[in-house]
Amino acid sequence: MGEAVEKVVTSQRIVDSPCCIVTGEYGWTAYMERIMKAQALRNNSTGSFMVSKKTFEINPEHPIVVELRKRVEKDANDKTVKDLVWLLYETSLLTSGFILEEPSSFASRIHRMVKLGLSITDDGPSGNLEDMDVPDLEDDTVGGGEMEEVD
């Protein structure tokens, strides 16, 4: 996960969720981080020391984590597994109240997973309007294109 998190640990306290984000005791909360990022005259270097280091906690008994571990053991370079891990991290950020640094990459991961779930390959339909069966527009020239008068 690189610089995105300080560390990744297994957790025994998570029950329903596959993972969560935990911040340091003396760092900023998600809400405070949002407030400081919204400040008009802030300097990017001054707030970096207070930004909380995030710990990514995973539930080793959750079915999603168990299946991901099996797939990583089978193929450590599987792009789908990497996308799923990043999606888990980013959704944990969102549920914890943090703002995503790159929402467009999150959206593209979601789109890839939807395409995978729908069994759509990259060489399949492009989704362009030319490929869709769209009815022709009605002819507006009837009546000379003038507006109707309303009493």
Descriptive report:
The chain is an alpha+beta fold. The chain is built from 4 helices and 3 strands. The chain has helices at 30-37, 63-74, 79-96, 103-117, and strands spanning 7-10, 19-23, 54-58. Strands 1-3-2 form a 3-stranded mixed beta sheet, with helices on one face. It is globular, with a radius of gyration of 24 Å. The model is unreliable at 127-132 (pLDDT under 50).
Secondary-structure-derived class: alpha+beta
The total count of strands amounts to 3
Distance between the termini: 68 Å
Report the sheet with the most strands, covering strand number, pairing sense and barrel closure.
3 strands, mixed
Report strand %.
5-15%
Q: Which term fits the overall shape?
A: globular
Helix content: 25-40%
- Mean pLDDT value: 79
Q: Looking across the biggest beta sheet, what order are the strands in?
A: 1-3-2
As residue ranges, the low-confidence spans are: 127-132
What is the radius of gyration computed over CA atoms, rounded to a whole number of angstroms?
A: 24 Å
Number of H/I helices: 4
Order of helices and strands: EEHEHHH
